[in-house]
Amino acid sequence: MRTPITAATLPAPAATPPPSIPATPVTYGSVASIARFSVAQYERMVDEGIIDDTDRVELLEGYVVLKLPGNPEHDGAVQGVADAFYARRPAGWCYRIPSALRLSDSEPQPDFAVVRGPAAAYRQRHPEPADVGLLVEVSNTSLVRDTQDKARMYGPAGVPADWVVDVTNRLVIVYRQPAAGGYAARDQYGPADAVPFELDGRRVADIPAAELLG
């Protein structure tokens, strides 16, 4: 029987982390980090089965972090987001739900991603920021992580847009214009609004926020 992942079962992290990794432990939302690794080390642990699908973790800024568990409200909202986008899928793009995104020091797993197609292009690698049109995070218990920690990673990496579907407060928050500290622009949409769906600066559709919020 496979031993579940814990701090004790993880191999020792690199002696000298990349300069971008903070020198002191950090907390993402209410969940503390376990250990610190490079993306290559993290992917090697996945390849060797040290981390597998039963381990709800992701790599955020060099830290292996426990993912917050999805409850029925969250999982239902993710499906609603997928339905809204699948009804408006543009040619040359594909959708991923959910899957890893490879950054320089992180490998988060956004709830939904719009990436350049075809889907077969990602059978041997994870998408990177240059492949991404936009990401969507669905939040009901992970608002701090999604609006602060992940936006802080996605913007400087060059992800064009980061949507946070805040099901608790019934809002769709759109971060755009990537900048050094995150994003330069933040737009907010309520249930009566329509959210502009743009890829490469082109308006694809206006998605009613009510469809995304369920």
Automatic annotation (TrEMBL):
Residues spanning the membrane: none
Pfam families to which the protein is assigned, alphabetical: Uma2
Domain of life of the organism encoding this protein: Bacteria
InterPro entries reported in the protein's UniProt record: Nuclease_put_TT1808, Restrct_endonuc-II-like, Uma2
Domain Putative restriction endonuclease per the UniProt entry, residue ranges: 40-190
Comp. bias intervals (Low complexity): 1-13
Record-linked Gene3D superfamilies: tt1808, chain A (3.90.1570.10)
Region span, Disordered: 1-22
Name used for this protein in its record: Putative restriction endonuclease domain-containing protein
